[in-house]
Specification:
4 domains, 12 helices, about 30% helix, Immunoglobulin-like, disordered C terminus, 5-stranded antiparallel beta sheet, alpha+beta
Amino acid sequence: MVTSRQLLMLASILVVGLLSLPQALAEPTEVIASVDRNPVLAGQLFNLTVTVNDDIDQDEINAEQQLNQFRIVNSRSSRSTRVINGDMSRTTTFVFSLQAPQQVGTVTIPALSVGDVSSQPIELTLLASDQADALSESQPAFIRTSVESTQVYVQQQFKLISRLYLAANLHSGNLIAPELADAEITQFGQDQENYEIIDGKRYQVYQRTYLITPQRSGQFTLNGPMFEGLISKDSGRSIFSSMSTTEPVTASAEPIELLVQPIPSSWQGDWLPADLVTLTLETDIDPAQQLQQGQPLTLTLRTTAMGVSPDQLPALQLPDIAGVSIYPETPQLNQAVRNGNLIAQRSQTIAIIPRQGGTLELPSFRLPWFNTRTQQQQVASTDQLTFSVAMNGSATANEYPSNPTDVSSAPSQAPSAPEMNQQGPAASAQSSSPNNRLWYWLAALFAALWVITLSLFASYWRRQQRQSRQPQTNATSTASDSDRHALSGALWHQLQQACQANQAAATNQALRAWANSILGQPIHDLTELSRHFAHPPLTSQINHLLSCRFGHHSVASAPDQPSWQEGKALLRSLQAAYKNYVKSSKTKQQQNVLPALYPQ
């Protein structure tokens, strides 16, 4: 049963709810917009703060549409609620990190509307880059950058050094990496921190180095790094001297115009732009020592380069040598930093087994490369090695005829019948008695071997007959499942998407990942995949893909249009090449199977 006290409490709650309903349904009555700096440099970052006297979402501002003249790098928001003398007020603050346009002059930040209320427009002054030094003195943060060169070749690695200057202690922040179309950008080394005095003012300096490798030739704009964060600022309103507040700051580096030159049209072979390249060849046996026939010889070939990544080092192979078996192992890729330079190394171990006696000559390895310092082609090479190989057994190489037909064509030295008769009965008896005993033991030995061979063949035939009666479908189904998986797995789907979109870089990466998974061996270069499948249509498509990515004709005259349009053709040729590869592998396996001794 409801008591009078409960009814009184319910009525109080209802009255409070009705009194607060108009305030809850009230719309914002004031929108205030302000910037943290004015003027700013053209292309520089600045903060736009929007304060609304209500609790609203960012979608109600629709900043993407109202601030379409600026690039919104980041945004954040905060909300506060205050109750004073029973009056409750809510405030929402939005901070947008904007990048100013590149044109020098004035630009207007339009009035930002939230419902029926709008802020006042702001006229922003944009200064030229030559006024950066004068302007930076009044800014709490700014960035200066430097590059090794503004003219590089495609796939040539260069450094960009960025220095962030802060006039106050850093509370928190994020340094955004530079941007360059069709380029690989990675951080190099660790950040360095020091301080610098500029016009008597002390700045904290944070230095970061980037390695940039352009993958396409043409004229590009390198957008510098950008910073956004919070710095600590002493609060004069606090009675405690140790108390401080934070202030949001932004900064961005000036863009850099970069010219990426194509591969010279006269260049032949693999393109390798580097500061320095060396080749070394080591052997586990001194060339002065004599090898034995069948004795393995191990070669260790090391390619060391400065200013490139390990993936850019090409594979070097020995040509086919008559009478020699060559077994290359999987190469090892490493990199290290020496004296502020990136050193890449490719180590290749090759096992060589001579199959015949004589002289073994190993040709020298040669690697053409482009010296980025002298702008000239150079060749790194190793010395030619010569070994002497002795044949196994008591006989030397000179005791064996160089031509097998010399033995059959030699004149017979058997005596004639009259000569044998002239030796007399005694001589004939002495010579025939040992021969008869020798032939007797030889006949017995061959008879025993024949019986053993016949027994082994009979046992093998019975085992083959038992195995032939068992199901043989497991191996066939496993092989067919593997073939279907190779052309339907996740890696194959990724390759299909990249080819259908005609994305050369993504196709290159997806094709190498698919080949590594299917072939079971690392594929560092698509030319290795061409040699493995030996399929002319696939080789032609791969060469065209590499030419479009790295060739001298892949200029950036139309950067919005992809230069490679043969994705579907490459996919069809790869399917045909893989099916031929699987078919030839099965044929070789069937040829290696020993047929039954007595086929049914």
